[in-house]
Every structure is written in C-alpha cells, then in structure tokens.
C-alpha cells in the first residue's frame, strides 16, 4: 500500500499534522511519500522577516515538492491545508487544478483530507468539505475525516461529552489515526 501525504503549510501547523498522518500510515504498514506544495509566488517581505516562517522553510527544505506522479504512485492520498477563511489554500487548489488531466487515473484510489484549526467558526469544516469536493471530481473514494476533527473544541462539551484539548497533541493523535485508517482502507480496496 502506497500513501502520498501532500500538504501546504505556511506557519507549520499543517506540516505537523502531515507528519503525523504519514506516521500513522507507516505504522499501519504503508509506504509513504511526504510531499509539500510549492508556494505560489516568491516569498514576500513579511515571510523573510518572520522567524516562524523562516524556520519552517528551513525545516521543510528536505521535503520534496509534490508532483502529479505522486498521485499516480499512491493507492491512498491524504491532502492537507490550512483553513483559509473556509476554503483550502490557493497553493493546494492550484496543485489539484493542475492535476485535472489525471481524473480518470485517480478513480478508485482512496483519499482523505485534514487541515489545521482556524479561529473562524466553521472555517475548518468548510475547508475540509472544499477539499473533499475537489477530490470527488477526480473520481477518488473519499474517506471523510473523523467527526471529532470537524467539531470545534467547545461543541463536544455542549453535547455533554468531554471538551477537546486545545493543544496540538490531540490533533496529532487524530492525524495519526487518519493516516492509519487511510492505509487500512486502501489495502482493503486493492483486494
């Protein structure tokens, strides 16, 4: 089972989730390609002066840039993006739009999505749904993210359940589980 984990990250949250998804898929026995999406334009001045962005760029220097061949290689695909005002990043959108000619070649592959949290109510859910719709146009079989990954932290408490922690650890745990489920589902669909 081959899994491609493809993501765009500006500040590092989505990159951390992508690494956890890849780890979960590897633990489930998959061969994994972790790939980042290239920036749309040359770094802006604020990117050069932001220590956080500069450190992330240095950290991700060893992660190859995603190519269409990564989609063809994979049996399972995990896409990650920041929640940009309720939609996926423009960088991920460009990558998916550039892969349109592969739609028939991706039919039957299993895919899932993940995104980093957003302070804007409903933005994370909308971004995940936008990625799912884009994947459906490529003919993939979508494995939706866990319900807990789509609920804002205080929703579980209002339903009477335990509140979600605001730390990244819970998100990374969910991401590892997503990677594991993707690998196992992909193995079952290959039979």
What does this structure look like?
The protein is of the alpha/beta class and 191 residues long. 49% of the residues lie in helices and 15% in strands. The protein has helices spanning 13-27, 45-49, 51-59, 68-73, 90-98, 103-106, 123-137, 147-150, 155-158, 168-190, and strands at residues 2-7, 31-36, 76-82, 110-116, 141-142. Strand 1 (2-7), helix 1 (13-27) and strand 2 form a beta-alpha-beta unit. 38% of the residues are buried.
Overview features:
single chain, 191 residues, alpha/beta, 5-stranded parallel beta sheet, globular
Question: What's the structural blueprint in terms of helices and strands?
Answer:
Elements: E1 2-7, H1 13-27, E2 31-36, H2 45-49, H3 51-59, H4 68-73, E3 76-82, H5 90-98, H6 103-106, E4 110-116, H7 123-137, E5 141-142, H8 147-150, H9 155-158, H10 168-190
Parallel strand pairs: 1-2, 1-3, 3-4, 4-5
Helix pairs in contact: 1-10
Alpha carbon gyration radius: 16 Å
The gross shape turns out to be globular
Q: From the helix content, strand content and strand pairing, which structural class follows?
A: alpha/beta
Proportion of residues in β-strands: 5-15%
Helix content: 40-55%
Number of helices: 10
Q: What can be said about the biggest beta sheet?
A: 5 strands, parallel
Name the strands of the widest sheet in spatial order: 2-1-3-4-5
Mean pLDDT: 81
**What is the H/E string?**
EHEHHHEHHEHEHHH
């Amino acid at each position: 089972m081959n899994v491609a984990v493809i993501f765009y990250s500006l500040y590092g949250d989505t990159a951390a989730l992508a690494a956890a998804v890849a780890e979960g898929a590897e633990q489930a026995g998959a061969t994994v390609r972790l790939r980042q999406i290239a920036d749309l334009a040359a770094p802006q001045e604020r990117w050069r002066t932001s220590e956080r962005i500069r450190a992330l760029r240095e950290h991700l220097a060893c992660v190859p840039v995603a190519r269409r061949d990564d989609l063809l290689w994979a049996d399972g695909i995990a896409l990650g993006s920041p929640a940009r005002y309720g939609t996926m990043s423009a960088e991920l959108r460009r990558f998916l739009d550039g892969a349109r000619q592969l739609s028939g070649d991706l039919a039957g592959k299993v895919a899932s999505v993940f995104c980093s949290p957003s302070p804007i109510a409903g933005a994370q859910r909308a971004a995940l749904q936008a990625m799912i719709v884009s994947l459906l146009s490529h003919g993939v079989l979508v494995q939706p993210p866990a319900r807990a990954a789509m609920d804002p932290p205080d929703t579980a408490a209002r339903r009477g359940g335990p509140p979600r922690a605001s730390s990244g650890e819970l998100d990374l745990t969910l991401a590892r589980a997503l990677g594991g489920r993707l690998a196992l589902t992909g193995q079952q669909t290959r039979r």
